[in-house]
Amino acid sequence: MSNKHPLLMFNLLPVGSNISSWWNFGSMLLTCLMLQTMTGFFLAIHYTANVNLAFSSIIHITRDVPFGWIMQNTHAIGASMFFICIYTHIARGLYYGSYLNKEVWLTGTTLLIMLMATAFFGYVLPWGQMSFWAATVITNLLTAIPYLGTTLTTWLWGGFSINDPTLTRFFALHFILPFIIISLSSIHIMLLHNEGSSNPLGTNSDIDKIPFHPYHSYKDMLMLSILITSMLMITSFFPDLMNDPENFSKANPLVTPQHIKPEWYFLFAYGILRSIPNKLGGTLALLMSVTILISAPFTHTSYNRSMTFRPMAQPLFWTLIATFITITWAATKPVEPPFILISQVMSFLYFSFFITNPIFGWVENKITHNNM
């Protein structure tokens, strides 16, 4: 009879002894992914990808299907929780220099882009008023691409307007992409275990490692309990907390909502988009707002990995967080003064972080070298 611990496989994955609860968001994201996949499969069984029946099928799921309202609300709220966790995960990576594990960071950035695409396609599926018009605004951005824009838009729509073929394509993409995300997540996790986790000090963890279980697994269980409890509380008591009131009306191409906006987790990119009056410039800025994260490991210049020991960079980081929140807030407001100016200033500050951070790294290196 073997006396080995049943969780020996976790003991074979040692981690740094000083990693904090900020490192638990990875397991929370994995839990969100599994939850979204399971609830999404249930919803797909009852959903009808037809412009005349899509909205009614959502009502049917929430009213007639046993426990359908739980599945539908959990899937909708789970998307918001997913993005709360992933934005926190990215912020932690930027602060503690986790992006220096290049392969891990690049696969993670690719995952973010794919998650945003999946969430966008899913937001259109209920075929509510805001879903339809948000899809119209975003897909029309493709027309800004020189020469190919109109052709790409027509191909995506499956015609000359958003209709049945568009909804069918969005449903197919929303169903298929999660399986690609699961595969890419597996690669992301394998690369992470190959490279090893970073830590708050930004030092080499090999000299001081402890078993994953029980030291880190218990923190995982605590954070997962908080995540699941929060989701159940919102689903049970505030199911419409993150829904737009316009989306409770069936899509009507003849009636334009007073203020078109996407879900909250897209608002920072949407705010950057509409802060630029030029359509092509706004589209490029929208794409850059996410893809600029790819540059982080290639523009790191500081001797120190973590911002824990970078007093000049710390205010820069917190300015980025405040900027992200302010852009999100401004994007919920009408396109009029002073919100246009606020969005433009915040957009400038957002991109400035990725330019100023390496400059501050050079300055810090020079100061450190002169004091040696």
Automatic annotation (TrEMBL):
Heme b b562 binds at H75, H174. The keyword Amino-acid biosynthesis does not apply. Keywords: Electron transport, Heme, Iron, Membrane, Metal-binding, Mitochondrion, Mitochondrion inner membrane, Respiratory chain, Transmembrane, Transmembrane helix, Transport, Ubiquinone. It comes from Pythonodipsas carinata (Western keeled snake). Component of the ubiquinol-cytochrome c reductase complex (complex III or cytochrome b-c1 complex) that is part of the mitochondrial respiratory chain. The b-c1 complex mediates electron transfer from ubiquinol to cytochrome c. Contributes to the generation of a proton gradient across the mitochondrial membrane that is then used for ATP synthesis. GO terms for molecular function: metal ion binding; oxidoreductase activity; quinol-cytochrome-c reductase activity. Residues 1-201 form the Cytochrome b/b6 N-terminal region profile domain. SUPFAM superfamilies: a domain/subunit of cytochrome bc1 complex (Ubiquinol-cytochrome c reductase) (SSF81648), Transmembrane di-heme cytochromes (SSF81342). It comes from the Eukaryota. It is found in: Mitochondrion inner membrane. GO terms for biological process: mitochondrial electron transport, ubiquinol to cytochrome c. GO terms for cellular component: mitochondrial inner membrane; respiratory chain complex III. Residues 202-371 form the Cytochrome b/b6 C-terminal region profile domain. InterPro entries: Cyt_b/b6_C, Cyt_b/b6_C_sf, Cyt_b/b6_N, Cytb/b6-like_sf, Cytochrome_b, Cytochrome_b_C_euk/bac, Cytochrome_b_N_euk/bac, Di-haem_cyt_TM. This is Cytochrome b. PROSITE patterns: CYTB_CTER, CYTB_NTER.
